[in-house]
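Inputs:
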Amino acid sequence: MLTTLQNAYQYALENSDRVFTALQQHLLLVAVPLAIGLVVGLPLGWWSARSRLVSTVMLNTFNALRVIPSLAVLFLAVPFLGLSFWSAVLALTLLVMPPILISTDVAFRNISPAIREAATGMGMPPGDILKTVELPLALPVVIAGIKTATVEVIASATLAAFVGAGGLGAFIVLGFAVYDPAILLVGALPVALLALLAEVGLSAVQRAAQPPGVRQPL
Amino acid sequence: MAKLELQNLTKAYSRDIVPVKKLNLAVEDNEFLTLVGPSGCGKSTILRLIAGLDQPTEGRVMIGDRDVSPLPPGDRNIAMVFQSYALYPHMTVRDNVASGLKMRHLPAGDIQKRVQEVSGVLGLDPLLDRKPAKLSGGQRQRVALARALVRNPDVFLLDEPLSNLDALLREQVRADLKQIFEDQKSPIVYVTHDQTEAMTLSTKVAVLSEGHLQQLGHPHDIYKTPANRFVASFIGSPQMNLFPLSRSGNDVALGDFRLPLPGGVQAASVILGIRPEHLRLPQEGDAHIVSGNVFLVENLGMHDLVSLKVQGDPSLTLRALISADASWSKENLKLALPPESIHWFDGETEQRLK
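Outputs:
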């Protein structure tokens, strides 16, 4: 095992340019779907928390889409978007949407109606209620959803290599192809490290956002 | 400062569910109006209509000369204290109290000054940097009050603010509330189902039942001259003794005892009411005396609450408050009914007979 790790280190040093490029591609494969997921998922989640109809439609649709494996979505996207970065982005966006959407829905839905009503009764306009009351209370649960989405997309972005979109998954695919565990580790270890960093970092943010005495987020 | 007026206020959720029916009420400056009634009488709905949390089906809410019925809550300049306090859990006490002022975009210095004034009055100074989770029930209650007081609103609304406190604390906070609101100039509308709160805090009490205003008046008047059977039974603890009786001539029979009706009463059937605290052990010269067998004695400390079955009709139960020091027969007890303490109501309409 130690030898494999040494070989992996040696391979990474010898191919540092390729590793660095793959890391950049991987981060982009994480950032773009996550950004789309946040821009679309957060407002949709907020809306679905306020409307039973929207909630039913949204949550069921995205939960149904989640059942389709990312790899299958990836290959389904290829005929339309080709073997490209955007095929991977589409598959990964579908992956990040449910946790962001569901956690945002739950976060806003769980705010005590009495608190919202108190703010209204004290004359706070809806915009101020959202900004000063609802958002701070919803934030920890929303961050929990973003954390899940981030960790999932970091791990799943490795699949992008199957449609030629690069990323750290390229080393895993190559390692499998030539049956060299060292090359595989050059892709797998940074991915695991990134996922761990995201988990620890976002957990810290989530704890910091948690008001004392308010129920722990999911 | 502004007068609050409810004009013909009606709220209907459906044809059958009408919690507020054509209510007319006015609360002047310096007045403390308590809406009191059993659960489901519409009192909290009225408060929500005044606050703008619900829209009336008919009628108007006037503050001063303004018809605020179409306005959202934010444009009514009303402060509300909720039963659950509903403090913002992510904010410190200081921020909770200041929240109503910040949304008006007042200068920071002014906000700080107002918060300090109010926190001084309510004894919140040592708690200003704590969050609600670190406060006791009584402290949370005071923060909720401070959040309302700091705004200098045109109208104060309080929705059962003491009901989540234990009995001892409730008594203490009730006394605090009375002192705090005595200095306020704005009209106050207070909702409770607790008649002790209604009687002790208010300058005016509105007794409600099934969406209808049963009586509006000074707490003393409501106690002394209840307008109908419902008010008579609802106000006063222990509850007033009420006996539906048929008249025969100018008398009614209470078991074996005949009691004369007041002059001018035309009703075929009447309801006789007498409060347990107005029944007393007979003295020389008492004209109306009834007796019965005692079947229950409840020790209330200063008084014994005695229940007896009236002689001649065991289905009639009379309850009397008798001083714990008094000596009386535990088996057959005679009680005097002072005529000035007897209330008469029409047997059919249940309205007070003049």
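Remarks. Chain A has one domain: 2-107+143-209. The longest helix of chain A spans residues 16-50.
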